[in-house]
Automatic annotation (TrEMBL):
It holds the Pfam family adh_short. Keywords: NADP, Oxidoreductase. This is Short chain dehydrogenase family protein. The keyword Ribosomal protein does not apply. The keyword NADP applies. Belongs to the short-chain dehydrogenases/reductases (SDR) family.
Amino acid sequence: MILGGRSDIAGEIALRLAPGNELVLAARGLQGLDERVATLRAAGATEVHTLDFDATQVEKHRDLVHAAQRCLGEGEELKTAVVAFGILGEQERAEHDEAHAFDIALVDYAAQVSMLTVLADEMKSGHIVAFSSIAGWRARRANYVYGSTKAGLDAFCQGLADRLHGGPLALITARPGFVIGSMTTGMKQAPLSVTPDVVADAVVDSITADEGRMPRSRTLWIPRALQALAWVMRLVPRPIWRHMPR
């Protein structure tokens, strides 16, 4: 199941998981998904189901997971769930518009916590994939609203991974750097920027690495060199750090 079926990264992951598998795409509104569904079927998906999904309606998250399980049919288990929905938001607007700041926090943190909790409770085995970000490693003046949601989500994911440790269900937490895609169109690229296909390759490689054995929770820096940069970021004095760009 792909939650956030329109995202660039989600599309690339779905494409790689399609051959021989049945997929469920959950997205806010189903308009415009026909082309993606056709592409996934052409890539070898045995069936592609679509479900209308509004991440902000947290009271319906468990119902959505039940609907996805019904799509797969009796006796079939949901084995992979990719939580790929989210918004970037507008930092300058969020600094003065509390409703917009709340919307960013709701979609990028609270709704993620809700859905991950439901998935960890409903799924019996396999992998859950969540997306943190380098933006959450150390909050920057230029995007602290979005960055704060990723910091909170990352902490939640580390705790959830520990809870799942040693069991048949694992959590993969992806920490990509700046992703060049539709969400960041027009923005200046950061060092070690990646494209959605690179992120998808890392995530799917992590999933397939567990074939034939007990799945293992792990955190992925994408690209790997980003981990070294992250540790350097911690050492930058705050008077300098507050002037760092997004």
